[in-house]
Amino acid sequence: MGRKLLINVALVVITVAVCLGVVEVGLRGYLKMQRRYGPEHAKDKALGWVKTKSEDAFDRPGEYYGKHDTFALMRYSTYVGYFPAAHHTGDGYQTNNLGFRNTEDIALVKPEDEVRVVVLGGSTAWGAGVIQEDTYAAMLQSLLQAQLPGKTVRVWNAGVGAYLSTHERALVVDKVAALRPDAVVHLTGWNDTYSGYRGFDITDDRWDYTSSAAVLGQFHKMFTYDADSALGVDPGPPTRAQHDLALFYLLDQPYYAKQLDAKQKPHDQVVEGLLYNMKIARTAADEVPVYLVALQPTLYATKKALSPFEVEMKAHNQAQTPAFGDYNAAVYARYRAMLPERLAALRIDMVDMDEAIAAEPRSVFIDHVHFGDRGNRMMAERLLQALLPKLRPSSAPLPPE
Questions:
Q1: Where does the pLDDT of residue 254 fall: very low under 50, low under 70, confident under 90, or very high at 90 and above?
Q2: Which helix (DSSP H) or strand (DSSP E) does residue 320 occupy?
Q3: Treating both helix axes as pointing N-terminal to C-terminal, what angle do 324-344 and 267-284 enclose, rounded to 10 degrees?
C-alpha cells in the first residue's frame, strides 16, 4: 500500500509539473504576441521611449530619433553578408552607385582634383537617426571643402548598420582600397564591444543579424525595438511581466546571469580582434596616405557631463542590459590604453572621439550609441582637426581656432 501511494504521489507531482510547464509555455507565447502586436506595442513602435525625448539632442527643430530610417535597404553581399542597395532613396537617406550614403555617384577612377575620404563603421558611422545632410560625413565634407579651395572634396560614407571591425576590413580589402582614397577613417569600436558582451566571435559569420533577411533586401524591416524580435539583440534579464508563474521567473533570473557571464569575451580579446582587423585593412590600403581609427564615443565611458535626458536614458538601458555598461566601459579602458601605440606601429593614427563631445553640457546621444545632429557636427569638427593638417599642402595656413 505504501509503495502504491508513493507511485500515485509521484504521478501527481509529475502531472502537476507538466501542466505548469504547458501553462508557462502557453502564457509566454500569449504575452509575447501581446507585446509584439498589442495596442501598447503599436504605440511604442510609433513613438518609443527614446523617440519622444531624443529631440533634446537635436538642433534642427522637429527632429527626434526614429523619425527617419535608421538602417538602409540591404542587399546580399558575398564578402560582408549584407550591404546597402545602390541608388536607393529611403526616409532621410539616399545611396549612390556603390551603396554609400551619398547623393553623388563615385567615379571608379579617381579624378585628379578630388580629395577623397572614405569613412567606415557601423550605424553611428552611417549616421542612424539623422537626415543625410546632418551626418558627420556630410558636414565633414563641407568643412574640408571650405579649407581646401581649388579641390573637389568628397567624403564617401561607407558606414553600415551593425558592422563590426571585421566587416570594415573586408570592405576595405574588397572595395575601398581600389578607390585610392587620400584618407580612410574607421569610426569604430562600439559594435565590437557589444559582440564581445554577447559572446560572439567577430570572425564568425553567425554574427550577421541576417542572412535570409539580407538576401531579400528586408533587413531594415526586420530590425525593430522589440527585444523579442530584434535578432541578435540581447533581450535583457527576465522580467516579472514576462511570467505568469513566479516559479519560472525565479529560475530564469540566475540562468540568464550565468549564461551571460559564461559567454562574455575577455576585454583584451576584443581589443586584439579590432587590431587584427585594422592590420589587415591597413595592409590592403598600404598606399593610402592617411589612415585613421576614430574611437566611437560611448555613453558608458565618456568624460562628458551627462544631461538629464542622457542620465535617464543610461538608466533605462542599464535596466534593459544591466551588465553591458560595465563591460563596455572596461573594454573602452583597454582601447584607450592599448590602441594608440599598437595602431601607430601599423601606420594608423588614433583619435578618441570622446574629445569631440566631452565639454558639451547639452545632450548629444539620442540613445546609448547614436547621436543627434549636434553630436554629428561635433564629430565632424573633431575629424576636421585630425585630417586637415595631413590633407592640406604644408604651405597653406591652418584654419583659425
A1: low
A2: helix 308-320
A3: 40
Calculate mean pLDDT across residues 26-36. Answer: 59
CB atoms within 10 A of CB 39: 8
365 secondary structure, DSSP code: B
- Sign of the Cα torsion 274, 279, 282, 283 reads negative
Instruction: Return left, alpha or beta for 199; rule: phi > 0 is left, psi -120 to 50 is alpha, else beta.
Output: left
Report the alpha-carbon distance of residue 317 to residue 161 in Å, rounded.
19
Question: Hey, what CATH topology would domain 38-232+264-391 get?
Answer: Rossmann fold (3.40.50)
Q: Where does the pLDDT of residue 260 fall: very low under 50, low under 70, confident under 90, or very high at 90 and above?
A: low
Q: Which of 392, 383, 388, 385 is nearest to 186 (CA)?
A: 383
CB 371 within 8 A of CB 65: no
- In this prediction, residue 266 has a pLDDT band, given cuts at 50, 70 and 90, of very high
Of 115, 111, 84, the C-alpha closest to 100 is 84
State pLDDT tens for residues 364-375: 999 989 999 999
- 162 Rama class: left (phi>0) / alpha (psi -120 to 50) / beta: left
Q: Do the strands 183-188 and 290-295 form a parallel or antiparallel pair, or are they unpaired?
A: parallel
Got the DSSP string for 182-223?
A: SEEEEEESHHHHHHHHHT--TT-GGG-S-THHHHTT-HHHH-
- For the chain, give the percent of residues with pLDDT over 70: 76
Domain residue spans of the chain: 38-232+264-391
Q: Give the span between the Cα atoms of 84 and 159, in whole angstroms.
A: 9
